[in-house]
Amino acid sequence: MILVILSLAGIGFFLSFVLMQPSRTRAILSAVLALLIILSIAGIAANDLHHYGFREAQISETKRLGTIQNQPVVGRMAIGQNEAFVYRYQTADQDKPQVVKPSLTTTTKLVRGNQAQIKTTTTRLQYRNNWSEFLFWGSGQDGQLVSRTVTLTVPDSWKIVDMKK
């Protein structure tokens, strides 16, 4: 919607100079429309740089890990210079093993703990208020994934098996 406001203000600014005679009304209207153009551009730039109009909402989900082929095990495969890992696991309520891979928005961690579980923390953008929703409606940013952290916690009794590529 902010693009519509910007477009209409630009067209109005142009038409005020082309169709109106020089007068005080034209000067005021042109100043108001120019200010609207500047504020729209500033709003777009602030949204692009700092996600203006949006807030980050976190959702966490924890599930129990299950065994893979009746073995308490988590598979791990290194990517690159052993700085990032792909993990293969199975939750207690699933029949088939799952894979979690690191990416630009997803980080993976493996830690030792008391319970075998997987915790997924997802951060997404949400409109800050109704005004932001009005301005940035149609931008496709509402619900956009910002980051996801997947933490696998396994007890000392579990094996961590290195998988081959």
From TrEMBL:
Database matches in InterPro entries: DUF4811
Keywords for the protein's UniProt record, in alphabetical order: Membrane, Transmembrane, Transmembrane helix
Superkingdom assignment: Bacteria
Transmembrane segments: 30-49
Name of the protein: DUF4811 domain-containing protein
Species: Lacticaseibacillus saniviri JCM 17471 = DSM 24301
